[in-house]
Model the fold of this input.
Amino acid sequence: MGWMQKLCDVYDVVSRVDIPDDSNHPQLVRIGFTKKKISYVVTITANGEFSSVSTLGKDDYECIVPTTTEADGRTGSNGEPYPLADNLKYFVEKADTHDAPLDRYLKNLADWCSQPEAPECLRILLTYLSKRTLLDDMHSNLPKGLKLHKNESEQEFDGQDAKAMVCFSVEDYASPEMRLWKRKDVQDSWSAYLARKQVGTVALCYATGE
Done:
């Protein structure tokens, strides 16, 4: 076995995202994932209804979640959404535009859900988020509500919660793990989806000569 293959094998082991958080095992973040600080977790019922919202403590909130090159390199509030967890301001519905971040998030999630290996919990998430009630549900069920604006009259989404990241749990009876960012089937389906997109991009560039 060559040294390059050995390096690849080591990377595959230490970049596994299903290693327990309390493990002392060295861990890299594998391609297609990034580490983010999650502030809120919204739990959704198996029927796609809001159940509860909770905050993560400082010892828990660094989570490994799916990402894309475009999301990692975004600037401002109109960049590409992350596939699963994102800042709350990216879940805002804007009536004056047809290309709001929430619209792009839902479009990207629907494409991921259409893949054959996508688990049902992702479709449950899509069902809930398509109702576009996330921010209202969170605001109504948090003891102090959400602070999305410094000045409520200006509605600039510059408050302390505007950049807070939210992720999701689904009460899926087929899996003992409700937290989507912890589920191996979600992780594996994202890796497969990302690989399929990259192959398609390469094929298109080859066909067009770009």
In short: The CA atoms of residues 66 and 84 lie 6 Å apart. The chain is about 35% helix and 15% strand.
